[in-house]
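Suppose a colleague, Dr. K., hands you the sequence of a protein chain of 271 amino acids and asks what its three-dimensional shape might be. Before reaching for any lab equipment, you can write down a predicted structure in token form. Begin with the sequence itself:
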Amino acid sequence: MITITELVTADFFLFALVAGLSLALIAGPLGSLIVWRRMSYFGDTLAHSALLGIAVGLITNSNPQMAIIISCLLVGVLLVYLDKNPKISTDTVLGILAHSTLAIGVVILALTESVRINLEAYLFGALLTINVIDLIWVIAIMLIVISTLYYFWNDFLSVTVHAELAKTEGINVERMHLFLVLLIALTIAVSMKIVGVLLITSLLIIPPAAARKFAQSPEKMAILASLIGSAAVVLGLLLAFYVDAPVGPTIVVVATIFFLVLSVFTRAQKE
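The predicted structure, expressed as tokens, is then:
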């Protein structure tokens, strides 16, 4: 069996580690906003729609990553637009778009005889197959998301705490909501190979949910969430390799264990 030294110096492991840590860094502040604003279902819908982007990219012979990004962004804009319609509840819109886009993507791929892909890799992630091009995409999107969050952080917080008050202070609430949805869409679009369509929202939600129990300020919660996510990525990678388990699900399982342990710890402290 390969030793730990050989493993951590292997190119495939280093690529996977950098990609996973990049996602964990984004998951801290972005996931915290998702948790505070109770937008987890928005993330699920965008994640499901990513499979439609894969199908369109493959049948049009275009860049799959770009197709996924465009698909997620378009669905994000559509979500924000439909969310303004008072005749249709938000959860109904999310449910329709999430399942319909996923189903359409699967059907298109099934009917396209010239295209054969490993759907399991997209559904549950294939972190160890990350290549240089994938890594460049992940890092580029990470920088865009982190820079935007840093620049608009106070506006995002104001809108989250009290939207009406933020509006009176001159903040464009609708624009900030659109920005947040688009940031989630970008993050999900480049994270599919890391944990997959069905698990990406979990990695955006579980670390912030665990950090929330200890955070004394929004900034501390975001930082702690990033640290918890990073620890889950590192331990998940190592554990998955040595027990021969899928990497994406293993990372989510480790993050869940962190959440449960920290929950028990905080409850014991209160007692």
